[in-house]
Amino acid sequence: MLKKIIQNIIRENNKAPEAVQCLWYSDVNYLALDVELVFKTKKGYEKKRVSTLNYMDFENQKELSEEAERIGKTLAKKYNAEFYFPSPNEWSRDCPDWWKSKKAFKCEDCETPIIQTDSKYLPKKICYPCHLKREQNERLKNDQTTEDRYSFYNINLEELPILSYSTSLENLIVYQYLDKKEIENNFIGNFGTYNIDRNKLIELKTKLENEIDKILLKYNKPELPKRISKLSGTTNIIYKKVKYELFSHFDRNLIHLISNYNDYQKAINEEQQYKLFGLKEITKRDDSILRYINYKCKGECKVNEVIENYNDVISKNEVKETLERLVEVGCLLSQNNKVQITSDGKSII
């Protein structure tokens, strides 16, 4: 990509730019970085886009940002120009062009130059990413709301695909079709587990099969108005070696049942087991710390790393108390001043 960009620039015989800038652009369904050359003109400055890097073409935001920075720095070195990338770590779209940045207002928290918003709903002295961070930190400090979480997953698969996830037992297929009282007895306390062995899987699969057969027996593909049919995609799904084309939205319950049936059949054939795990009264703090350990620390880190990450938000004792609770309920393992997330912990985030 870089070689092609340079070839295009040389072909167009551009004069040497004053700067090379990388700026974010986004809307509801779009996130991208533009790499632009900035030229001095008689009236001031003008910019010329040489590449647009779309988020959809990269694994994550970090990879996108690093590629834009690599292209920008190479071009800046080639032209002996200033390199300007005001927000490489956060997708702040409120940054001014290079020639306006020197006199631009600086975010109070990160000192990134910003174009101050005129929205009455957003603060004017900080950038949008810092605004979100402040809100998140405030919730971690003060938000006492809780929710229950239940997950149903295959314990034999390393990738840990979550088959079902809900804030209520009643919404899970495993609860709807197996012995409700037996399941409830395993979740009387603050957390619980319910193992689904081969016999329970066969029972669950059989009951789902009966339900699906009843629905298909009466099923007529809906005739949708043209306007709606264009917006409603279809899904091809196999059930008992027969392919069905179903509407993704209107037939979502049937699709959900068949998908579960197929997963159970595969698990039975391969001698796999499932597990239902539930944790009650999860706080924002519980969720944040689990996500930090799982995603930022790749599943394992020192206790002091967690404490340092939340140093300006919650106290050392509050972090330790949260870690102790998460160990107690089976979401974390603790040994030698290190914590590691468990399969149960992964399943509820």
Q: Which helices and strands, and how do they pair?
A:
Elements (H helix, E strand, L loop, with lengths): L1 H10 L7 E9 L2 E12 L2 E11 L6 H19 L2 E3 L13 H4 L3 E2 L6 E2 L13 H15 L3 E9 L7 E5 L6 H5 L2 H6 L5 E6 L1 H20 L8 H6 L2 E6 L2 E6 L4 H18 L4 E10 H13 L3 E3 H7 L6 H13 L3 E4 L2 E4 L1 H5 L2
Parallel strand pairs: 1-4
Antiparallel strand pairs: 1-2, 2-3, 5-6, 7-8, 7-12, 9-12, 10-11, 13-15, 14-15
Helix pairs in contact: 7-9, 10-12, 11-12
Structural features, described:
It is a single chain. This protein folds into three domains: 2-139, no CATH class; 146-276, no CATH class; 281-347, Orthogonal Bundle (Arc Repressor Mutant, subunit A), CATH 1.10.10.10. The protein is built from 13 helices and 15 strands. The longest helix is centred in the middle third of the chain and has 20 residues, at 198-217. A four-stranded mixed β-sheet has the order 3-2-1-4, with helices on one face. Strands 8-7-12-9 form a four-stranded antiparallel β-sheet. A three-stranded antiparallel β-sheet has the order 13-15-14. The protein is an alpha+beta fold. It is 40% helix and 26% strand. It is globular, with a radius of gyration of 27 Å. It starts with a helix and ends with a helix. A hairpin with a 7-residue loop joins strand 7 (146-154) and strand 8 (162-166).
